[in-house]
Amino acid sequence: EFEVKITSYGTSWSGNIKLGIMRCQGQISSNTPRYSLEALNHYVWTSNEFCSHTGGILQKSSYGSMSLDNLKQGDRVGFHISEGGDLSYSVNGDNQGVAMRGVYEQGWNVYIVVDHYGNCTATRITKASLGSSKCDDTLHLQDKK
Fold first, then answer.
1. What angle do CA 90, 124, 134 make, to 5 degrees?
2. Helices marked H in 9-140 — which ranges?
3. How far apart are CA 123 and CA 112, in angstroms?
């Protein structure tokens, strides 16, 4: 469990941030596509849709009670993967429900995807329990301009 906090936000573009997971067997390939939705075995929440890309097929479904495009500087999005492999998110502590079931599959590694898109220019990933402000560690990400 952890959360992503938007620490820098612009207004020059449309869109905001894409968040999700990537599954792969073994190590992450050095030729992973630049854009999260183009990569196989990516499962990403973007705007108000949850997108999965498996077997060469991109599927989209409505997700969440709000659009990620409405997030602003200071907003937080929490990730949670249950022991049973259910992926869910929260926005500023408000649970958005299960986005995907069966995240864990034998032989596959699971990696987090944070895609700065549009107006989101920097985030802080905080290891914490959802809804908690207690942090174990932080990692700051910022776009290269």
1. 65
2. none
3. 14
Q: Where residue 135 falls among pLDDT bands split at 50, 70, 90?
A: very low
Q: Which tokens belong to 95?
A: 């649970």
In angstroms, rounded to a whole number, what is the distance separating the alpha carbons of residues 64 and 51? 12
Instruction: Please tell me the distance from the alpha carbon of residue 48 to that of residue 67, in angstroms, as a whole number.
Output: 4
With CA atoms as reference, report the closest residue to 50 among 98, 6, 122: 98
Length, in residues, of the chain: 145
Which residue has 């097929």 as its token pair?
Answer: 57
Round to whole Å and give the CA distance between 72 and 83: 31
Query: Nearest 5°: phi and psi at 9?
Result: -145, 130
Helix, strand or coil for residue 23? Answer: strand
When mean pLDDT is compared across 32-41, 58-67, 107-116, the lowest value belongs to 32-41
